[in-house]
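Problem 12. The chain below contains 262 residues. Write out its predicted structure in token notation.
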Amino acid sequence: MLSAKSLFQEIIDDDESFALFCSIAAGGESQGGWENARIAALVPRSERRLAPRIARHGADEDKHGRIFTALMRKRGLDPVPVPPDADYTMLLEQGGIGLSHDRLRAERPLTVQEVVTYLSHSRVTEQRAAEQMALLRRHFGDHPDIGRAVRMIADDEDGHLAYCHEELLRLARAGHAPAIRRTLRACALAEIRVYRDVSLAVMARMGRLLGWSRARSAVLAAGIHAVYVWERLAGWRRMVSLEMPERRDALGGPATAAPEYA
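Solution.
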């Protein structure tokens, strides 16, 4: 039976596919760590209260990158190059979503509108991350090798999403609601397209590594396209709604340490 659990079980049981999965995840998380660190350094004076929370966000992302790398090392595996068509963060930037790396390398402070852009981009991508990690936590939270890492990362992603909701609502009350709505919608529509393309690229490579039949690969590709159609028609709306989270000030403290792996 083809299910999310059986599919991922097959990926983690094979060294080559596991290394590819962890390398893609580690690369994206590490990139997010750098981006958040730069944003924290460039926050405008009027939003300086955000700086430690953005820095905490970046520290969490760096930690996740180290965790995925450690999971590979634990199995005696080395990271592998991330294929360009599977590089989610790079493709989002190329699509004009979020703040460009050229902008983040500049030394001039961000504007409040750029902070809105950052938070809107994060709200959309953290929705995706939280959903993916919730799926992994449901099926593999008790796994002897990866369960602890999955639970920790899933909890962090929930906190990141709560933080985005809370801060965007604060900025909406301060008069930025129209800009937030426009930016969230643009980010969501771009993200679902990039996510579809990356999913197809990753599944194609996994299929080659694991020797999937053409029929099985076609079924998975059709499923990815079906998810995209649903998201394009209606699902994107879950990425743009804002509500005050139960978990308030989720990034108000220091980052937790990454688990140690033998």
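Discussion. The CA atoms of residues 132 and 183 lie 23 Å apart. Students who got a different answer should revisit the alignment rule from Section 12.3.
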